[in-house]
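To the wet lab folks,

You asked to see what we're planning to order before we commit. Fair enough. Below is the target structure as tokens, and below that is the sequence we designed to fit it. If anything looks off to you, flag it before the synthesis order goes out.
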């Protein structure tokens, strides 16, 4: 039960797309793809809807590959995905900094929209972009009958949460035409009361804050009384992992003004690392426009509601786009001010992920976003004999303004359009649909979720 529940929780985080556990080697592969943008084994046989008879199939997939400078020593999971689905994704990514709408318009004109659209956001969750694809005949309706027939493992996951396939389907149909144009994401595990009452659910209930990593050697130069990483770890162990907010929030950074003040003090120190100047901060996960909000939204004093992009106060019947709130405007002003004063680096908004990660690993930032590869930095500095570490710090644990948002109600929706999967019928023939839906079904299965969370049994049992 413990492994099952943990797999359910981690699946929502680790399932970046439905591409399985690919190690990135297939990105950009073109091979001998046919005019449909796909290729199957050249057997001369017609495709089957029986998984036992599936042949190897390549699919162009619009996705977002994770970037990690550390290469896997051994790929243990990709062969399992290949065996289970016989689908090999050939990845296509929207170039960094490219506007999604402009990119999509160019692909439609050139008839180069990939076979599967599975990027995290910006298309399937955007009615305007989906309308563009519909008008171009580049998105296929997915019927309830097909989902019931070809996605039995998904039906099992839904049943465990008390949801039927029909309920899941109806929650995601287009309200304008009553049709489903993209396979939605699975409902969150906390939809089930049993999971909400578990230790894992308890730690996830409520609105979570974003956080940053702060280099603790630099932190001590500015705030000598603040705990470094080792001191915080010792305190957590002494208290059996149960710390109060007062204990955790020992650094005097509780709002944007104080964060700005800290970054400014770092800049004034004129520090260097391996001959390179240390930039005070890198607060975004990537350089896209959307990353402005989802990288560190809680720094605004808001939280992303289940009804994103709305922030909601039900007691006052208020439903407001977060970008129209004073809190958001203040946050954008903070980001603009920090950039203009050199607190984020001149390349902040155009920097490629690989360049950013290389600088983080080299220790050239003092404060970085919670998603950034500080573990790879620690691996490097330990080999060099350096001893600094990174303090994990919430940004920010403050009470929300009740005039804007209400914390009294937490909803658990049946679905979300984030990370939905759309099929392009100009690149996918009808006889390929059973295998494609089976591929999606396998990626939604509990077995796949467990493998992502834990690996194969020998990887956690010894």
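Sequence we intend to order:
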């Amino acid at each position: 039960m413990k492994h099952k529940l943990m797999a359910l929780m981690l699946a929502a985080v680790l399932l970046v797309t439905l591409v399985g556990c690919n190690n990135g080697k297939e990105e950009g592969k073109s091979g001998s793809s046919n005019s449909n943008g796909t290729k199957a084994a050249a057997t001369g046989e017609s495709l089957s809807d029986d998984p036992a008879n599936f042949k190897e199939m390549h699919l162009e997939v619009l996705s977002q590959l994770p970037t990690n400078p550390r290469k896997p020593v051994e790929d243990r999971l990709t062969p399992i995905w290949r065996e289970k689905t016989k689908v090999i994704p050939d990845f296509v990514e929207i170039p960094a900094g490219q506007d999604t709408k402009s990119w999509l318009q160019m692909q439609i004109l050139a008839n180069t929209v990939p076979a599967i659209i599975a990027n995290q956001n910006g298309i399937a969750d955007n009615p305007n972009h989906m309308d563009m694809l519909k008008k171009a005949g580049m998105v296929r309706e997915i019927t309830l009958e097909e989902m019931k027939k070809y996605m039995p493992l998904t039906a099992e996951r839904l049943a465990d949460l008390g949801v039927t396939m029909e309920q899941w389907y109806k929650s995601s149909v287009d309200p304008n035409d009553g049709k489903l144009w993209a396979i939605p994401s699975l409902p969150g595990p906390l939809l089930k009361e049993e999971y909400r009452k578990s230790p894992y659910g308890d730690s996830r209930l409520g609105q979570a804050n974003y956080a940053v990593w702060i280099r603790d050697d630099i932190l001590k130069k500015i705030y000598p009384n603040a705990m470094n990483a080792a001191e915080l770890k010792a305190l957590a162990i002494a208290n059996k992992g149960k710390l109060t907010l007062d204990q955790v929030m020992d650094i005097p950074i509780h709002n944007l003004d104080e964060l700005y003040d800290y970054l400014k003090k770092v800049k004034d120190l004129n520090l260097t690392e391996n001959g390179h100047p240390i930039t005070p901060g890198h607060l975004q996960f990537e350089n896209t426009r959307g990353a402005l909000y989802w990288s560190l939204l809680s720094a605004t004093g808001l939280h992303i509601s289940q009804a994103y992009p709305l922030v909601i106060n039900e007691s006052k019947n208020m439903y407001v786009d977060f970008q129209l709130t004073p809190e958001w405007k203040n946050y954008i002003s903070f980001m603009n001010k920090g950039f203009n004063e050199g607190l984020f680096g001149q390349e902040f908004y155009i920097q490629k992920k690989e360049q950013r990660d290389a600088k983080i690993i080299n220790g050239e930032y003092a404060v970085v976003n919670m998603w950034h590869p500080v573990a790879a930095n620690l691996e490097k500095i330990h080999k060099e004999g350096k001893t600094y570490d990174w303090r994990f710090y919430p940004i920010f644990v403050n009470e929300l303004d009740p005039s804007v948002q209400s914390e009294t109600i937490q909803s658990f929706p049946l679905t979300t359009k984030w990370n939905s999967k759309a099929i392009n019928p100009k690149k996918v023939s009808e006889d390929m649909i059973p295998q494609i839906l089976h591929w999606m079904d396998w990626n939604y299965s509990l077995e796949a979720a467990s493998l992502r969370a834990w690996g194969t049994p020998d990887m956690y049992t010894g």
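Structural context that might help your review: The first strand starts at residue 38 and ends at 40. The chain has 20 helices and 13 strands.

Thanks,
Computational group
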